[in-house]
Automatic annotation (TrEMBL):
PROSITE patterns: PPR. It comes from the Eukaryota. It comes from Raphanus sativus (Radish). InterPro entries: Mito_RNA-Proc/Resp (IPR051240), PPR_rpt (IPR002885), TPR-like_helical_dom_sf (IPR011990). The gene is LOC108808647. The lineage of its organism: Eukaryota, Viridiplantae, Streptophyta, Embryophyta, Tracheophyta. Pfam families: PPR (PF01535), PPR_2 (PF13041), PPR_3 (PF13812). Transmembrane segments: none annotated. The keyword Aminoacyl-tRNA synthetase does not apply. PPR repeats lie at residues 297-331, 332-366, 367-401. NCBIfam families: PPR. Belongs to the PPR family. P subfamily. One of its GO terms (molecular function) is mRNA binding. The keyword Glycosyltransferase does not apply. This is Pentatricopeptide repeat-containing protein At2g27800, mitochondrial. Keywords: Repeat.
């Protein structure tokens, strides 16, 4: 019996890894095991566990252990996320044999172009980084644009951003080194890594550089526009905040003498649509051919149609759709889905059905939300028979699977 009690107490104290609070009565008689067993032990364990009570009976003695625990509702801190990321992604180990082989393949007095070729052909990015650093220590050798560019592309593609940042700092420390292609690659990988502030600092370095080969070009602004648009996360308020930066960048680009192309103008149109400023997007659309000598493409129309449908302006959306098809463009699935939903929600169910079949004939994929909206709005307008026939046609033509068909039938039954 004594051995059983001892084993139970040992298991309790192994579970209670945090501090253990014992009542004052049991502290005074701690040397007496019977009084300790009769006392109530309260154990406080860190969060992330459920609350529970454990109890057992040894003869006439009852031991009760209550553990009070709760879930954490706070988000993990940045330092905790970094520790978890390091734990899940251990630091890579250098393959010494590959490194020695890469060094031995270089000629005795290799040039920067030969080193750049060796870095490009090497598949292991860590070997490339050590090869780059090894070359930096060789006498009478200085890195040039090809070696910097090859190392940055290799490390950036492997998402080794810390090592890439070391190479970038070396680029920035040498005034005569650098060109537009090199800095654009740096910008691309920094924006891909989410290091937007670092990318902006690189852009400022490009604009103030005395080396004219490092000055920003239209491709530089493309990278920044795309990165800023991606930060909105389809949130209109966040998109509005970043849209101010995009407008400033666009104005700076035009003032510096760079002519905007259709991609840059489409970025403005998309940004205005995402921030719910559709009229500003239409203004840019009408200025494209008159002011900037650029013709709108299919992406321009798709952004505008989606934005107009989001505001319920179906007449304007259909006008743009007709103009788009007249130029030989085919609307994408997002534009068609937006228009069918907007027409159905606006009570124009027949036009929505016509647009739906036009969408199917064009080979665009209709999503389940569009089907659900069309069925629900048809029932809301008292067109139950038409909704039932539509579902039958969709099933006959195998446009929906069994699971989607059952969901749409449930929508129809609820409205009957």
């Amino acid at each position: 019996m004594a051995a059983t009690r001892s084993a139970f107490m040992s298991s309790i104290f192994r579970i209670a890894t945090a501090r253990t609070l014992i009542s004052p009565e049991s502290r005074t008689s701690f040397t007496n095991p019977i009084s300790l067993l009769q006392s109530r032990i309260e154990v406080s364990i860190p969060r992330s566990f459920h609350s529970f009570i454990a109890s057992t009976v040894f003869g006439s003695t009852r031991i009760s252990v209550s553990v009070s625990m709760s879930y954490s509702t706070t988000l993990p801190t940045r330092s905790l996320r970094r520790r978890i990321s390091k734990r899940n992604n251990p630091k890579p180990v250098l393959d010494e044999s590959k490194f020695r082989e890469s060094v031995s393949n270089l000629p005795p007095r290799f040039t920067p172009e030969e080193l750049a070729d060796a870095i490009t052909l090497q598949e292991d990015p860590l070997v490339c980084f050590h090869l780059f650093n090894w070359a930096s220590q060789q006498p009478r050798f200085n890195h040039e644009n090809p070696t910097y560019h090859a190392a940055i592309r290799k490390l950036g593609a492997a998402k080794m951003y810390k090592e890439m940042d070391d190479v970038v700092n070396q680029v920035l420390s040498v005034r005569h080194v650098g060109n537009e292609n090199l800095y654009n690659s740096i910008l691309y990988y920094f924006t891909k890594a989410g290091k937007l502030i670092r990318a902006v600092n690189i852009f400022r370095h490009m604009t103030t550089s005395k080396n004219l080969e490092c000055r920003p070009t239209i491709r530089t602004y493309h990278i920044l526009f795309k990165a800023l648009l991606g930060r909105g996360n389809n949130n209109s308020y966040t998109s509005h905040m970043y849209m101010e930066t995009i407008r400033s960048l666009f104005r700076q680009m035009v003032d510096s003498g760079i002519e905007p192309d259709v991609f840059a103008l489409n970025c403005l149109v998309k940004g205005y649509v995402l921030s719910l400023h559709v009229n500003d997007a239409l203004r840019i659309f009408h200025q494209m051919s008159v002011v900037y000598s650029c013709q709108p493409n299919s992406f321009t129309y798709d952004y505008l149609i989606h934005g107009l449908c989001a505001q319920g302006r179906t007449n304007n959306a259909r006008e743009l759709l007709d103009e788009m098809k007249g130029k030989g463009f085919v609307p994408n699935g997002k534009s068609y889905n937006s228009l069918v939903n907007a027409l159905a929600l606006g009570g124009e169910v027949d036009d929505a059905v016509s647009c739906l079949w036009e969408m199917v004939e064009s080979g665009r994929v209709v999503d389940l939300i569009t089907y659900r909206t069309l069925v629900a709005e048809s029932c809301r307008n008292g067109k139950h028979d038409e909704a039932r026939r539509l579902l039958g046609t969709l099933r006959e033509r195998k446009l929906v699977d069994r699971d989607s068909y059952d969901k749409l039938m449930n929508v129809l039954r609820k409205d009957l």
